[in-house]
Amino acid sequence: MRIFPAALPPAHEVTSRKCSSASSITWMRAAQRTKHLRLGPLVYTLPLYHPLRLAEEICTLDQLSGGRLELGVGRGVSPLEIASFGVDPAKSQAMYLEAYEVVIKALASHSVTFRGEHYSFDDTPFILEPVQKPHPPLWYGVFNAESTEWAAGAGVNVVTNLPAAAVRAITDRYREHWAKLGRNPGRIPFMGIRRTSPTPRTSTES
Known about the structure:
Layout: E1 6-7, H1 23-33, E2 38-39, E3 44-45, H2 51-64, E4 71-74, H3 79-84, H4 92-108, E5 111-115, E6 120-125, E7 138-141, H5 148-154, E8 157-160, H6 164-180, E9 191-193
Helix pairs in contact: 1-2, 2-4, 5-6
């Protein structure tokens, strides 16, 4: 019996947020132990990864899982996590945008050419490829309504753990941007809400 179609827990680094780090290792193990479950982290903090190295991990995970990877990406909500890896939090948004473009290019082709402030590649070969074309489904971690403009433009799913009032502002703004782009309202991406609840010790408690 299939109860849960997907497992997409949060992923954080160096903090005590009680969630997964070393995401790729975790999901390689999960892919080995499951057959149908779609899986992936929320999210890979792109400024903390070399984009081509991360693209290789994404392809490997999608291959090992037989095309079951859900790809969560974000720029990082915690300045502490960003700074702990030697990245200037003030530059994280610019790094995210560049890294995202590089990762998407790599997943969809066998070479990458890119010129940016933080990353540059000149016809760099990229051999691996994902099962899901052109790339696994994308989820973007959103923590303010302003971020929805980029998400709608990129056409990605969004997810947040903010309170209900903020969630409403995010979903309304996403729909506004989607409509301004002239896109089909019936094809709008998913908008996810993450909530944390205690794990029951017994079936009676559940």
